[in-house]
Write a structure and sequence with these properties.
This protein has 144 residues and is an alpha+beta fold. It folds into 2 domains: 30 residues; 81 residues, Immunoglobulin-like. It has 2 helices and 7 strands, in the order αββββαβββ. A 4-stranded antiparallel β-sheet has the order 1-2-7-6, with no helix packed on it.
Length: 144
């Protein structure tokens, strides 16, 4: 015959410890998710240019860097907390991303790296890259 001791206070303490552990793990996952993000991007090709649009709500224009080197367009930036007071809050649920981002795009040879413009409108970054003038075949006369 086995004797079972019912000790509710110990069980309650164990349950509390498990809940604390679970909540701490969840909080760590939320912090990790909130510190790394990848903004969504659409790229459109027109006859004379490429247009890239990127959703970056809450990112100040001065926090965005657009550069082009060796045919690679790179966009980086950081979304910071709007209110420092919010950083101290203990969130029960958090889905809005914050932190740094970086996206790189290899552009076709037709992209003109000297004709690039970038602007933000209502949380959307728009980058326009002009195409180079198409090289036309030309006839070279042969002389005697």
């Amino acid at each position: 015959m086995s004797i079972f001791h019912n000790e509710p206070w110990i069980q309650l303490h164990d349950f509390g410890r498990e809940m604390d552990s679970l909540m701490q793990t969840r909080k760590q996952q939320q912090v990790a998710a909130a510190s790394v993000w990848t903004p969504a991007v659409d790229i459109h090709e027109a006859e004379d240019h490429y247009r890239l649009t990127m959703d970056i709500p809450g990112v100040a224009p001065e926090e965005i860097e657009v550069s082009m080197e060796d045919g690679v367009l790179e966009i980086s930036g950081e979304r910071k907390m709007v209110d420092a007071e919010n950083e101290k809050r203990d969130y029960s649920h958090r889905e809005r991303f914050q932190g740094a981002f970086r996206r790189s795009f290899k552009l076709p040879e037709m992209a003109d790296d000297t004709e690039i413009s970038a602007a933000t409108h209502h949380g959307v970054l728009e980058v326009v890259i002009r195409k180079r003038a198409a090289l036309q075949p030309r006839r070279i006369p042969v002389t005697h």
